[in-house]
Amino acid sequence: MITFQDLNGIRVELSFEKGLFPIKAMHVLVIAKYKGKWLLTKHPIRGIEFPGGKVEDNETLEEAAIREVLEETNVEITDMEWFAEYIVYEENPFCKAVFIANVGYIHDKSTTFETEGARWLSTNELQNYENLSFHMQDQGMQAMLKKVNTYEGKWNN
């Protein structure tokens, strides 16, 4: 387990083992890569980040991950698997499940995004991008990106 403070000074615990936290994950984050580029989205306030969001009523984590990626990027994902989870100890603590996935289908542009749509960045571009969300800059994200590199054979390049 990795414990750190995010850029807002809030304590966060990250685990690559399932079920270690006392709070059930009700948020999701999806890390996907296609043809050598990471699938990200641009949130109008926070900046560039991996797609994700809250689980809705009567929805599984996996269903929420698929829905959120589609809503935010207009991309359908496949071959999704659980990767990590982390808990954020703000006033109302929450737990987020992290999935890795392949890109299955990229729809034509749409105006139904909750964000500014899909952004495709190479690893180098991601490491040097100036408008990253604060979520993308903390120690936990760096640990996840380092570990996800061990999954390089998974991506549908």
TrEMBL record:
SUPFAM superfamilies registered for this protein in UniProt: Nudix
Alphabetical list of Pfam families matching this protein: NUDIX (PF00293)
Family, per entry: Belongs to the Nudix hydrolase family.
Tagged with keyword S-adenosyl-L-methionine: no
CDD domains: NUDIX_RppH
Organism name: Psychrobacillus soli
Name assigned to this protein: NUDIX domain-containing protein
Alphabetical UniProt keywords: Hydrolase
Gene3D superfamilies linked to this entry: Nucleoside Triphosphate Pyrophosphohydrolase
A GO MF term: hydrolase activity
Protein origin, superkingdom: Bacteria
Keyword Hydrolase: yes
Residue ranges constituting the Nudix hydrolase domain according to the UniProt record: 21-145
